[in-house]
Amino acid sequence: GSLLSDKEPNNRLIVVSNRVPSPKGAGGNQGGLAVGVMNALQKADGLWLGWNGEIDGDNNAQLSHYDFDGVRFATFPITEHDHKTYYTGFSNEILWPLFHYRPDKVEYSRESLDGYLRVNQRFARHIKPLVEPDTRVWVHDYHLIPLGYYLRQTSVDAPLGYFLHIPFPPWDVVRILPEYEDLLRYLTSYDLIGLQTEIDLKNLRDCMVMALDARDLGDNVLEVEGRRFKIAAYPISIDVNDAQDLAKKGEQSATGQRLKRSIGDRPLVIGVDRLDYSKGVYKRFQAFERLLENAEHQRGNVVFIQISPPSRTDVHEYAQLRSTLERVAGHVNGRFADYDWTPLRYLNRGYGREAVFGFLRQSRVALLTPLRDGMNLVAKEYVAAQDPEDPGVLIISHLAGASWELKDGALVCNPYDIDGVSDMLEQALAMPLEERKLRWRRMMDVLETNDIHNWSQNFLAELMEMKLANSASQ
Ligand code: G6P
Questions:
Q1: Which of 114, 279, 307, 439 minimizes the number of CB atoms within 10 Å of its CB?
Q2: E strand or H helix at 434, and its extent?
Q3: Nearby residues of 73 by Cβ (< 8 Å), 6 or more positions away
Q4: Residue 324's pLDDT is what?
Q5: What is the 33 CA–ligand 1 centroid distance (Å)?
Q6: Residue among 165, 195, 272, 317 whose CB has most ligand 1 atoms within 8 A, to mutate
Q7: Which residues are catalytic?
């Protein structure tokens, strides 16, 4: 370990999340959390605890410990019933759609809630024996909101931090959830709560005030029922150097060269997203179709490659989206393809990180149009993957967290405006080299000043500060 452990040699760190990166190489459908936290942890001297991705009937299965890619892991399986209620049910049929402003997709049930609380208690039981007084515990994402509360109940007095990787919606959306007050109260057990953007921060603050009568003590510190905690925005980022290396290697690799040969001189547009309705791929396909309708010179020319590895296949909405996208992709190709040209390459599978970075580097445009996204790390990865002498153009939805930091260099679109996205795609494909370089440099400056290492360092430093202040005031 370096960075963090050099500074705080005796200060242990336990990171907790539902999903941990798979040593079996899940082929790139793991989402931003696994990528961001992995990069942060490789430089710290920490332990990462979470679900091992497997189902096992034994409710008392112990932790398995192993090292992978420079990080220590402790993982455990969950039962089929827990998977159905905690993971598929409460996390992904209730919290995920609600937090992405889609109450129409919420499938609420009390059984799911019970599973959610039960598995959070199980996480607490696994963590408790690992915590020493100086151990910092950093909990990640919506699966584990009550964990801090259960840890405090078992008299864990360590610094507890929480980071939400997805959006936090406005109060009037949050209160659709029957237990919204409990959920907010669980959050008050943490010393520091991190969010992706200022909007998410504002929404959480409103909720704390409206639902729990929180007192604002200034400097982002709130007080609820005698407990003080801080809430702040820490936009997650990437390891820029790592991304650049991967992209160069990926372009040179056999996979990268095969892509190049198959495209020739044609301009390539790329999208990379888990197959999820929040990513806006349906409307994205429609915008691409509109481009082919309007810009005749792009027929036989532009190629759009959309990489969408399946995700959360047990959730009904995801299965439905999958067949919708298959239909639309088939429709676009059926309508416009020619004997020597397929406009839309829709790939329902994941690729290794090196291959994906190589694809990103070869793409003239990245078209990332989520209807709502906590951050969207692919946008940042695309920027870092570019060749500085011939960089591509990023089109990013204004409803993705990443648009706030990248707006001075990216083309920022409204993903609901299909004509608008189609026009922007035309603009991107026609953009002169000088303008591309200028825009790319602006985005790179942002990434270079706030990379993944600043992100974790800032969060952990403020966590310690807040914990010290809390201990002093007791
Ligand atoms: C998003 C979430 C993560 C999650 C990832 C993949 O990035 O914020 O918590 O791990 O999606 O989803 P999955 O359900 O496969 O873990």
A1: 114
A2: helix 433-449
A3: 20, 23, 47, 48, 49, 50, 65, 66, 67
A4: 98
A5: 7
A6: 165
A7: 165, 373
